Amino acid sequence: MLKNAGGKIRAFFTLKSLSREPLIFSAYAAVVLIMTYPAITLTSRTYADPKDPLGGLWWLWWLRYSFFEQIPVTPVSIVGVPSGLNINPYRTDPLFNLGARFLSIISTETIAYNIILLLSFFLTAVFSYYLVKYLTGNIYAAVLSGFVLGFCPFILVQGKEHLGLTAVFWIPLFFLLLIRSWTQRSLGNLIGCSAVFVLITLYNYQYGFIAGVCALFFSLALWLSGRPLKKKSRDVTGLLKTLPFIIAVFIIIAVLFTVFTGSPAAGGRNISEAYKYSARPWDYLIPHAESSALGYLTRDFIVNNIHGSFTVENSLFPGYVPLFLAIFAVVTAFAGLVRKKNEKPSGGFEEPYQKQEPPESAEPNGGSAQKEITRAITPDRLIFSFAACGLFAFFVSMPPSFSLFGVKIYMPSYLLHRLVPQFRVYARFGMITVFCVAVLCGYAASKIIELELLKKWKLPAIVIVSILVLFEFSIVPPFYSLNTKETTDYYRWLEAQPGKPVTAVYPLFYIDSFYNYGYFFQQRIHKKPLINGAGADSLEETRRQSIMDITGKGTPGLLKELKTEYVLVIPALYEIPKGWDLNFPFPAEIDLEKIPPGLDMVKNFNDCVVYKVTAEKPGLFPLYGQGFYQSYMDPEGKFRHPAVTRAEIMIDSMHEEPVACRLNFEAGSPGPDTTLTVFLNGVKISSFPVSRHPRDLPLEGVTLNPGRNRLELVSDGGLYYLREVPGYSDVQAAMIVGDITLEKAP
Q1: Distance between CA atoms of 526 and 78, rounded to whole angstroms?
Q2: DSSP state at residue 673
Q3: In whole angstroms, what is the distance from residue 688 CA to residue 163 CA?
Q4: Are 164 and 93 in contact (CB under 8 A)?
């Protein structure tokens, strides 16, 4: 009786007695719903941190809003007024944007966001399952690999920050077709693999770049592991058969790279960003900072060694269990290779490997795939190739260079940055390392569960290991929940105002600030055009530098020049310790008593004061141009504009006749005392001694011509690092200039 009972239990715990893949995919779906809660609620909440997702949801809203309002998608006319924000969605990840726009139009931005999020997690697990099932013929091992990649920290953390980067599902699908192209060198497989590569790149340029680089290295490793140089001419023939595919991939990469570099959003990046947004070895070895189970052990260390990046970019922990299994797969493959070397010559590229029957647990399709692979490429070669690819991605994810015993050693990212300066976050190559660990984990599991001890208990063994993996990875509880319908009383007030009054919300943050994304996010509610959101390197961004000080004497008039009707000032945002937040590195209390004439208060909420712009247009607009860095607000609430030894301030005059005016600004030196010489339209008008203590520099009787006037400031001092200003420690300046005020002479 006990024997029969044991048999029934074992029968229950075998996938042969169950509806296999629907049950497996249901398990994946259940974990997705738990890990991403409340995304499944769809309509008003999502799984997100209130940072980048605020801008992402606003973008989906704009794609929907512009369609129903019959407004051109680009430029985005509702922010960065008056010119708008120049973003072309079809030059940056066009496939993602097309799909996102379609989903937003037929539903809402929140529903579209949640659908993309849920499907990305689910498809990553499913495609990982199919890849490992194809490679090993073992569905139990495939189930485990699906859990390892589908819910790894990289995806879980990126999921709450960057919606587009959850699209890891393209990677296992691409490698599946890539391997099929090696094993079955048919035109259909080559076209299919190339087509998926194109889709990856069109969906997310970054993943296209990462997949292309790593696929080329994987292919090289796979070819070299067959010892082609020691084979006869048949191996050269095999390589020649693959050349059309390699050439096609290079052509596709060249075309897509040309399109990408022509994108307005694809400006070159400083190599300092590659150092900042690269990985460190410990990112792969210790649990990620947001792990619910183990994060408390490592969080302080990670945060204190984040090297200017974010924890979201360094969550590359593959898990101790998967890492152990991956190492086991490589070690056993190497041991098997040594053993076979003494028995017979190693299998070549075209040489049939010793035929093996598919495991008893393999499905029919899985078994045929196993035979097909073992005839062309041995499992050991694939294991070594995935291990080599994972190590390659690991080294690419490291900083461009480091010093060892006084010797500077350059890493692959240094060369890649020279070739593709548009790419900056090399830590994201670590996703390929995690992917390779997941595949190797499947290989190890396929061997271990066939041991006599586990052969009859495969399912419970895989369930237990999967639970351990999810325990290592889990970032819940608490759940990351963002309410997409939540707003404030002052934004409701703005929503109720008739028409489309142009509005400015202060502090006036840089476009890539999380706080600026918050302004965008609330625009979904009030739908009023904003001065906020000027694109980098645009005229509006240059104008923003001149109107950042809401207490500045000339700000109301400049806002009037930009046709601004309302100004919302949120004092609490000035007081937040922002660390290295651009423009606002110091917390400072804003004195609303210093709001100048021309801004009349119309509403006072608990955490916001609303003003109406009543100032006259001054007809003069200063623009901080060449030689100036981004400005910052000092602890006293004054805005400073650091500059190099020679800098230009362009003054646009809207008057039809020359006008005489009084020009005044503060200036100081970050180093020893220097002399500052001022030129107007090429003519020297004055010189001033300046020191570390800024002083007023009044210029009387300055005549400005109609159109653009060039005010040039020249310092005879050297360049000094602004180490006392958070976020500006790598900025070298020769002078610090305050805001300029211009008054017409009576």
Answers
A1: 11
A2: -
A3: 52
A4: yes
pLDDT at position 346 is 40
Token pair for residue 58? 């606003």
Q: What are 587-599's pLDDT values in tens digits?
A: 988 999 999 999 9
Residue with tokens 């991939």: 249
Backbone angles phi, psi at 691, to 5 degrees: -135, -170
Note if the pTM is more than 0.85. Answer: yes
Beta strands 735-738 and 639-643: pairing type? Answer: antiparallel
What residues are paired with 409 via a beta bridge?
A: 402
CA distances from 429 to 173, 208, 409 (A): 17, 11, 19
Instruction: Please give the backbone phi and psi of residue 586, each rounded to the nearest 5 degrees, phi first.
Output: -115, 140
| Alpha carbon distances (Å) from 275 to 31, 389, 396, 644 | 35, 22, 12, 24
Domain boundaries, given as residue ranges, for the chain: 18-473, 489-613, 620-744
Q: Name the band, by pLDDT with cuts 50, 70 and 90, for residue 241.
A: low
Tokens of 384: 């070594």
Backbone angles phi, psi at 581, to 5 degrees: -60, 130
Say which residue the tokens 């690419």 belong to.
396
d(CA 83, CA 77) in angstroms, rounded, equals: 7
- DSSP lists the bridge partners of residue 504 as 567
- Predicted pLDDT of residue 78: 96
Helices (H), 187-232: 187-203, 205-224
- Phi, psi of 590, rounded to the nearest 5 degrees: -85, 135
Query: What whole-number distance in Å separates Cα of residue 133 and Cα of residue 365?
Result: 9
pLDDT digits (tens, 9 = 90+) for 81-135: 999 998 888 777 899 999 999 999 999 999 999 999 999 999 999 999 999 999 9
Residue written as token pair 């940072």: 51
Residues pairing with 733 in the sheet: 720
Give the number of other CB atoms < 10 A from CB of residue 272. Answer: 12
Q: How many CB atoms lie within 10 A of CB 391?
A: 14
With tokens 């945060």, the residue in question is 303
Distance of alpha carbon 330 from alpha carbon 742, whole angstroms: 71
Predicted pLDDT at 265:
46
Backbone phi, psi, residue 526, to 5° = -90, -25
| Distance (Å, whole) CA 456 – CA 449 | 9
- The C-alpha R_g of the chain, in whole angstroms, comes to 30
The CA distance from 348 to 186, in Å, is: 19
Tell me the pLDDT band of 418, cut-offs 50, 70 and 90.
confident
Whether residue 208 contacts residue 164, with contact meaning beta carbons closer than 8 Å, is answered with no
pLDDT confidence of residue 17: 40
CA–CA gap between residue 567 and residue 611 (Å, rounded):
5
Cα torsion angle, 303, 307, 308, 312, sign: negative
Say how far apart CA 59 and CA 53 lie, in whole Å. 9
Task: Name the pLDDT band for 436 (thresholds 50, 70, 90).
Answer: very high
What is the architecture, at CATH level 2, of domain 620-744? Sandwich (2.60)
Average pLDDT, the chain: 86
CA–centroid distance for 598 within its chain: 41
Cα 352 from Cα 338, distance rounded (Å) = 18
Please say whether the beta carbons of 161 and 202 come within 8 A: no
Nearest CA among 148, 145, 123, 149 for reference residue 136: 145
In 265-412 the beta strands, taken as DSSP E runs, fall at 401-404, 407-410
DSSP one-letter code for 76: B
Give the type of residue at 562: L
